[in-house]
Every structure is written in structure tokens, then in C-alpha cells.
From TrEMBL:
It comes from the Eukaryota. This is CCN family member 5. It is found in: Secreted. May play an important role in modulating bone turnover. Promotes the adhesion of osteoblast cells and inhibits the binding of fibrinogen to integrin receptors. In addition, inhibits osteocalcin production. PROSITE patterns: IGFBP_N_1, IGFBP_N_2, TSP1, VWFC_1, VWFC_2. InterPro entries: CCN, Growth_fac_rcpt_cys_sf, IGFBP-like, Insulin_GF-bd_Cys-rich_CS, TSP1_CCN, TSP1_rpt, TSP1_rpt_sf, VWF_dom. The gene is Wisp2. It comes from Serilophus lunatus. One of its GO terms (molecular function) is integrin binding. It holds the Pfam family TSP1_CCN. Belongs to the CCN family. GO terms for biological process: cell adhesion; positive regulation of cell differentiation; signal transduction. The keyword GTP-binding does not apply. Residues 6-82 form the IGFBP N-terminal domain.
């Protein structure tokens, strides 16, 4: 929880009138310009997990407060969610626990207990050669997010849309799949795998999705020479 400072401490830290640099600082991505704790100068708001104090305030627009409860002797407070609410930070943006987001058109992720799991939005099926499509190839299509299968004739080098030759299954597909495996990394980004036939060809394939159980602890800053 945030620690309130008594008025006499505030008056010692805050000088009047305000003396601020002419040019406001350039903030990293995801860190807005805000007034410091004295209400004087524009500073970059501190983000999740970054050090903070009375002057260097946290990004309140993301629901962050300066948390002194976990600060041990000799270390300062850090920005955390109010009421110890779990969240996760991806590409400089903070998401609330349970929030679903798309970092790209190929991935859909969910923030969960301080980490996140992602599933691919593009199919990861495997197309094997067939008589009507002896040389299948997956290519990026301009204007489309997901790559698509095309058929390339070896002698004529003609490309045609794979959807025109997609076989219609003569039988209903009995869906089958294993459970997702545990995350391959105990901290940081890893991946989980499963085997499933839930694709348009009803063929078994190994599917993968990204996962992050918790962020890895930050390495200590090198001691200046």
C-alpha cells in the first residue's frame, strides 16, 4: 500500500517556487508525462516494478501506486497495483488480471496471475503433397495477417489459391487432443505444446502457444567504475 507522508516532510521536499527544466524529459514508451509529487515539474511516470518515491510518482492511469510494503532494508519502494491486484506488462503496456489482448494480429493473449498465455490466431496445420497439389508452399499474402498455402507447379511455376483445392472431408472429424503441457520456462517467456487434430484437414499436429508464468527477476545493476 502507498505510504502517506506528513505535511512537514512534504514542505521539506517541495521547494517553492518551482524550478523546472525548460524542456520536459522524453519518456520511454508506455510512460506518460505527469506532475511530480510536489505538483511542480513534469516527469516521466514510473511503470510497473520500477523504483518510486514521493517525488517520482507511479503511473496512476494504469492503477499503479508506490508500494512500500515489499521494500526491504536498503532498497526503495516500487510501483505496484493498488490492493495487490495482479497484472502483467507487455511491450510497455500494463494489462489487468484476466484481460484479453492482442499484441499482434497473429496472437491473442490473456493476462493471468502476473503472467500471460497466448494462443496463435493463424492455423499451424501441415499440408502434405497431393496429386493435385504436388508442391505446397506457405507464403505471406499482402494485406492478410496469416500466411496461406499455395500450390506451385514445378514446371510452370504457377501459383494458385490453396482454398480452391482444399479437399472436403468425406467424414465428420472426431476432434481429439491432449492437454496443454506445462510452460517450458519457470520465468520469462516459454511455450506449451499439445497434440491435436483440430484443424481444417483433421490431421494430428503439434501445436504451440506462448506462456509466461512470471517475469524473471531483474539482474542487479552493474556497479559504476
Amino acid at each position: 500500500s502507498a505510504m502517506a507522508l506528513p505535511p512537514q516532510v512534504c514542505s521539506q521536499l517541495c521547494r517553492r517556487p518551482c524550478y523546472c527544466p525548460w524542456v520536459p524529459p522524453r519518456c520511454p514508451r508506455g510512460s506518460p508525462l505527469v506532475l511530480d509529487g510536489c505538483g511542480c515539474c513534469k516527469i516521466c511516470a514510473r511503470r510497473l516494478g520500477e523504483p518510486c518515491d514521493f517525488l517520482h510518482v507511479c503511473d496512476q492511469s494504469q492503477g499503479l501506486v508506490c508500494d512500500y510494503s515489499t521494500a526491504s532494508a536498503g532498497t526503495g519502494a516500487t510501483c505496484n497495483f493498488e490492493d495487490d491486484e495482479e497484472g502483467c506488462e507487455v511491450n510497455g503496456r500494463v494489462y489487468r488480471d484476466g484481460e484479453v489482448f492482442q499484441p499482434s494480429c497473429k496472437l491473442q493473449c490473456r493476462c493471468l496471475d502476473g503472467g500471460f498465455t497466448c494462443i496463435p490466431l493463424c492455423q499451424e496445420d501441415v499440408r502434405l503433397p497431393t496429386p493435385d497439389c504436388p508442391y505446397p508452399r506457405r507464403v505471406e499474402i499482402p494485406g492478410k495477417c496469416c500466411p496461406e498455402w499455395i500450390c506451385e507447379a514445378q514446371d510452370q511455376h504457377l501459383l494458385r489459391d490453396a482454398r480452391a483445392v482444399t479437399p472436403v472431408l468425406p467424414y465428420p472429424c472426431q476432434e481429439w487432443g491432449t492437454e496443454w503441457s506445462a510452460c517450458s520456462a519457470t520465468c520469462g517467456v516459454g511455450f506449451a505444446t499439445r497434440v491435436s487434430n483440430q484443424n481444417r484437414y483433421c490431421r494430428l499436429e503439434t501445436q504451440r502457444r506462448l506462456c509466461l508464468l512470471r517475469p524473471c527477476p531483474a539482474l542487479p545493476a552493474p556497479f559504476p567504475a
